[in-house]
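Lecture 7 notes: from sequence to structure.
We start with the chain below.
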Amino acid sequence: MSEIEVPVEAQAAPTTSATVRGWIVPAIIGSALLMQTLNATVISNALPTMARSLHEDPLRLNLAITMFLLASAVFLPISGWVADKFGAKRIFMIAMVLFALSSAACGFAQDLNQLVIARIFQGMAGAMMGPVGRLVLLRTTPKSELVGAMSVLTMPALLGPVIGPVVGGAIVTFFDWRWIFFMNLPIAVAGVLLVRAYVPNVKEQDVSPIDWIGILLTGLGLAGLIFGFENVGRGSLPPGVVAGLFLGSFGALTAYWFYAKSNPHAIIDLSIFKLATFRASVVGGAFMRVAMGATPFLLAMLLQIGFGLSAFQAGLMTFISAAGALVMKTTAPPILRRYGFRTVLIVNAVIVGVSFMAYGLFKPSTPHWIMLMVLAIGGFFRSLQFTSLNGMAYAEIEQHQMSRASTTSSMAQQLVQSIGIGLAALLLHMLMVSKGQTHMTAATIAPAFVIIGAITFISILFFIPLPKDAGDEMNGRASKP
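Predicted structure tokens for the same chain:
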């Protein structure tokens, strides 16, 4: 079967049918991303069980999540260029195969070091899947249809959070935790076959030279930032080394900022941050995504270690949150058409922040129906917020900027989520020290939800300056004179 190449000149007016463009292609790409989301939610819920099996402290096991996100953030900048050079469809399929193989390596790991190394390779493969799949969608879908297509794209991916906690809890409770990685293999096989059959290959006609200097500077900067943050207050590294990591990180990122201003082929196009919608989505949305990265880890600690639930019971509890997020996906387009991006983002930010803080009020004696209701409401509105942020990000992006905009947005999301996990672990450590405890309890974990929830309110400062008609081309609202 020959590959379908979509020239840049033709991308503004895709010739694929509305059904293929709006439903089939987004659903297939989203199904491939199911591996990532399923893997992330399963491992969060399985951490306490994995820690016992590997004879490690549960807090140290969060390194397996952090290093996955770190590898993704470091390798994300090159994903757009590779897709442009060799074809998005080809790279997408290769990434799925590599993700499956590294998942198998995680399953065979015998200690924390082996697990972390395998997770790094998983992150490298995942760095190609997300932005490359989104790039195919951005270049083959008119802007007026993009919010709907994005909703379809994320629906299969949301099946990971829906079934992940339950499946992962069942596996680690009744079987062996290693199967949480082996189950990626059949998903990868099905994904490759579907992508090969239906997904078009988007390839640039003229590819700019690869920016090795930019890749080196951003890689060093992001790696130093995340690894330094991971070790703050832990005592695993001397304070001088941690400070050196931060200084080196800021130095590398500052050098990249000066370098990118004079380089038209810079791997990350900083000029797109001048666009209000992109800046609000990526920078403002970062404060929401910190909580998204921290919550699965904190919920696993609270429900299993704090409340003494099994992994399967905890999975059933968190199932309702992801189910609420999945239900929201069908309602997001009409809500955005009715109220617009700005209003939805401001009002919803308050609801999401309060829901995060409400998790900290859970007690072992709290009736389960109340916990389920709060988790469902939080999942619904959290998903609405991220659908809005992801859709609005590309409202002012031109076609020739889509590749680097997709890469930049994906890199920022991975970076912020990894910071969220590191921040959650750091907060738990600091709360334990402040209470003079050597083991986590529910009283230790609960305040972390309140702190994380409060951080999300900062995002409102980026949403308020947006014009009332921001992104109206994306959500189908009639423009006001």
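Points to note: DSSP finds 17 helices and two strands in the chain. The chain has two domains: 17-202+267-475, 211-266.
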